[in-house]
Amino acid sequence: MEKLLRFLSSCLLTSLLTFPAVTNSMTTDGMDAMDASGEAVESEAIASAEDSLVLSIQHTIDSGKPLSPRKVLIPWSDVEDNPLLIIQSLMDNVLEQLPQDAVQPIKVHTEVTVELEEGIANVLGELPKLTINTQRDKQQNVTSDFTYPAYRRDVPKEYEAGTIDWKGVTGQVAYTKASQSLKIGMDTKGLAVSKDKDFKFELGKVALNMMLGADLLPTQIDFTFAGFDAKDLTGEGDFNIKDVALKMDTKQSSLGVRLSDGSLTLKQINYAEGKEKLSLEGLQFTTSSNEEGEVVHFSLNSALQKLSLPALPQLGKAFSLSNYTGNLAFRNVDEKSLLALQQSMQQFTSQGIVNLSEETAGMAMFALMGTLMQIIPDVISKSPEIALTQFNMTTSEGNLDANGAIRIDGSQVKTLDESAIIPAIQAQAKLLIARQLLKTMFMMDNPSADKSDKTISTIQKEGWLVAEDKDLKSEVSMANGKLTVNGKVMFDYLAEKKRAQEAREKMRGTDEGEKGEESSEEVEKE
To answer: Are the C-beta atoms of 517 and 466 separated by less than 8 Å?
Structure first.
């Protein structure tokens, strides 16, 4: 049964990931290389068929005679580490059929058959073939159309009776040589798997449209997922997700910085196991960015309509949250510094981090840190700011409202030591939180109500929080190195620095006085 589950998951991953995976193959210099002899090529995989996913691949070039099937063995252990190996093997095999020097249009029809072990074959029956139709035109543009047709199987009773109903998937990858860009599209119809009187799993439709640039980074993404429903038919549990959508549009600034605007929405999540229930509704994230002169601004907005958690052991009762809104802004980010950081990150990731040796990865990370150190002065010079413009939510334990901002005045910073940076920091923040909510938050770490009350009292005595009816509030500001909380100066950097300097001078004077006394005593002795 373990191998069956591995196979089903691999088939699903294959169908979902086929399209993006082709990008690595299509844009390499060797994309046209092949041995077109048509002879069968056995995989060099050491693993046996029992330990591998076995694929039989047959190509037909320009409607000619089908070539001899090629068998590819992909060890299950490798698939578990990297499911994309399935896709990579398929696409490498297809692209090998395109002659390297030919300029005439060419077509390749590919059929892929999964060879099953006898035990799995008895459960799944005969699987349909995956077909890939690839064509290259005179301009070296390549288009591949994929189809994995619908498939239904009523599993025999002797193999734990159930049903497998795969709705099918279609898609296309189009590579344009002139711009070295890729357009990817796919439409997965869905999947339903059930076991009589045991469980039922339904996967909804998935649609993906994506554009990638020459650097293989996405410039546009439009992804929708109807969700899934996993139900324990014995009544023990249920888990479902409904309506997920991801949209992203990336543009370039005047200097070439990648700026992305996008959104992620999720309509609903429900989970139930016995008496425990969790639900989430109306989750949304949006990002936006814009260029203004030599700086770039970013914003990240989030919202949640409702979250209900089961009874928490620390509290002994359920917890719910509603009407959450959080808006975060990053302002005055130096554009040249951001470009240098993006280029460094791109160079780092293009080396294939997963496959890097520990020594090489360390060197790459060191180079990245070097870039960060170089750009810090320019970043500070533009007076960067982080602002929490809105943060509020309603909970079963009370409400929370907060806002604030922290900024570095770059005109005051001439060096990167703390004596220049700390006085240049400007900050202000306001917090209003229900006492009961703060107590609940402390009890998440330590379930003792008494200790939570004592902690809150200590914080109040120190002046960090002040009471306002049933709420606690705090107003914080910082300017010229002075931190003020609720009207009380908690820290004054310049005053502390002055006292430290006076203490050093006093100590120096004491040391010089002692040395002078020692010299006088020596003279008297002589």
So the answer is: no
